[in-house]
Amino acid sequence: MSKTLMKLQTLRRQHANLQSLRRFSAISQAIRVPSCNKEASPSPSYYVNIPNQAIRYFSDQVKSEESTEGGDGTEKVEDVVVTEKFESLHIMSIGINRPGKRNCVNEDTAEKLKMAFQDFEKDENMYCAVFHGIGGNFCAGYDLEELAELEENLANKVAELLMDQGPMGPTKMALTKPVIAAIDGYCVAGGLELAIMCDLRIAEENSKLGFLNRRFGVPLIDGGTVRLPELIGLSRAMDLILTGRLLDPKEAHDWGLVNRVVATGTAYGTAFNLAKDIVKFPQECLRCDRESALHATFSAKNIDEALEFESENSAKVLTTEAILGAKKFLAGFGRGGKFNVNREEENK
């Protein structure tokens, strides 16, 4: 091999290593996930300690299927739903952990997802949830392999699921607190129904959104035909529902289907930072306005009924948080559009 060719190959390897280093550095800065080092000095990039089972895995860190070998040689079954509560931040993380199945949901996963969201709803110390998938995909829908095995008792099983909940788990729950979806990889079929169940959606630039279930004759029964038209309009909803085509993140953002498009590997960190911002606000007022918006969108018969509900729903806040907020304004907080209103609470 000539010296020139050897030198050229060396330069290529150096360039590739430099590019990989730059990409890792950019991602690590953008993710801003909580530190696993208890001795780390306090900074905005570190929140609280995360136990190993709650660390988020990316596409190049995917665990094997749902079971691994324990230290004693026995098979250790991984939790299909991983949750973590950040008590001091009032944020709960909920992750689907079936990376070998692109986080497809089966009956067991659906039940555990529902239980996780019920736990979030009941816990008064949790103000916001970040919902994500582990292993490089948000969720690729319901596990069709399990569905195919239900052929003999399919009617009874479907009836049982529909009476109790949606097949994906939490999609028919009336949550009173905000949930943010951190979307990466495939977010399709029932996975997209899970995403539009959330209040906000952060999508990575390589994610894929759509109703691929159209190809197999699997209907939308987790709120897709109800929520999607309200989010993006009937015409665009019909485009996705009828064609089953995949939507790229840019078009999804233009349509209003996702709220932010971020670099690959940063959706969870961005969603977590957004949750940190949301939990700083007075929560009774925030939940009140959220409830009024949802009522006007899905429940109100007409604009008069929606306005009446809004007035009655907000009355209780006017005598509590609104008065405190007015006093803070008079004290000089929040002037000029600044978000320093809750500075005192943040420093506690």
General description of the model:
The chain is α/β, with parallel strands linked by helices and 348 residues long. The strands form 3 sheets. A 6-stranded mixed β-sheet has the order 3-4-5-6-8-11, sandwiched between helices. A 3-stranded mixed β-sheet has the order 7-9-10. Strand 4, helix 2 and strand 5 form a beta-alpha-beta unit. The C terminus is likely disordered.
Could you state the order of secondary-structure elements as H and E? HEEEEHEHHEEHEEHHEHEHHHHH
Termini separation? 66 Å
Number of helices: 13
What is the percent of helical residues? 40-55%
SS content category: alpha/beta
Q: Major sheet: size, sense and barrel closure?
A: 6 strands, mixed
Throw out a few tags for this protein.
13 helices; six-stranded mixed beta sheet; 348 residues; 13% strand; single chain; three-stranded mixed beta sheet; alpha/beta
